[in-house]
Amino acid sequence: RSERLLDFVQNYRKLTRVPKPVFQSINAKNFLSTIGILMREELSRKSIHFAIDLAKENLELNIDPVLIEQVLINLIRNSINALEDSIKKQIKINVYSEDHSVIVEVSDTGKGIPDKEMKEIFVPFFSTKKDGSGIGLSLSKQIMAMHGGRIRVSSIVNEGTSFYLHFIK
Q: What is the pLDDT of residues 136-150, one digit of tens each?
């Protein structure tokens, strides 16, 4: 019990002590390629096809790269988990402009999220994973808000899930 309590306290601290973003203008292609390199071994080990598609090669993001890297790695890890029992194992990151936003979309061909869970996924400490802390998506939502943006999700059970990170230009 004491270990669980310590885990809870540590996770609570992570959730409440997010550093203030230090914004930089970052080339989206280079930034996402670095994340792909970080995740390459795990993706390869699990036979997951990973792709990055940019609408424009020279697209710039005004972000805190450390915080947004944390968000993207969390989304990719969630996708890896969702692909566990899938036959077609794909994760794709699409980056494009829409209205006055740059959208970074992380999609997978995994099991999808049932409607009853969809309403809870951004709630702190909600998790469907046996060993999950339930802070990943709520922390991601908080980081996106600190960037003046937002995160949204769409999912179809047994087809896949897409998370959309909206950054205001």
A: 888 999 999 999 999
Q: Closest by alpha carbon to 155, among 102, 115, 98? A: 115
> Both tokens of residue 151?
């995160």
**This prediction's pTM:** 0.87
φ, ψ at 151 (rounded to 5°): -125, 135
